[in-house]
Amino acid sequence: MKFVALLADGYEDIEALGTTAILRRAGIAVDFASVLEKDVMVGSFGTRVLPDLPLSSVSVSDYDGVFIPGGAQWKTLGVSQPGQRRAQLPLGQRGGH
């Protein structure tokens, strides 16, 4: 099983990293995707995360779930900006999920 976490600068550190820790302890792989297509994402308390891939490379068929930590930039996920893919992942399209 595999999940993707969508991160933007200002993400809530505990929501991103705590959720990831719990999922990984349960044997679920987690990738971090950069919504802003940046090389380093910085949380609301300064925690730095190196994303595994940019949002533009996320393929829904590669994941069983997605989670979106809160934070100051959550609105980024619903606003399309030049050169940025809007975070719309069609759900329920994998067989049996």
Question: How would you describe what is shown here?
Answer:
It is a single chain. The chain is globular. Strands 5-2-1-6 form a four-stranded parallel sheet. A two-stranded antiparallel ribbon has the order 3-4. The longest helix has 13 residues, at 13-25. It is α/β, with parallel strands linked by helices and 97 residues long. The model is unreliable at 82-87 (pLDDT under 50). Strand 1, helix 1 and strand 2 (29-34) form a beta-alpha-beta unit. 13% of the residues lie in helices and 22% in strands. The protein contains one helix and six strands; from the N terminus they run E-H-E-E-E-E-E.
Mean pLDDT: 83
Strand order in the sheet with the most strands: 5-2-1-6
Distance between the amino and carboxyl termini: 11 Å
* Total number of beta strands: 6
Helix content: 10-25%
Q: Given the helix and strand composition, which structural class is it?
A: alpha/beta
Figure out the total of helices: 1
Note poorly predicted spans: 82-87
Shape: globular
What radius of gyration results from the CA coordinates? 13 Å
Residue fraction in strands: 15-25%
Main beta-sheet strand count, sense and barrel state: 4 strands, parallel
User: Could you spell the SSE succession in H and E letters?
Assistant: EHEEEEE
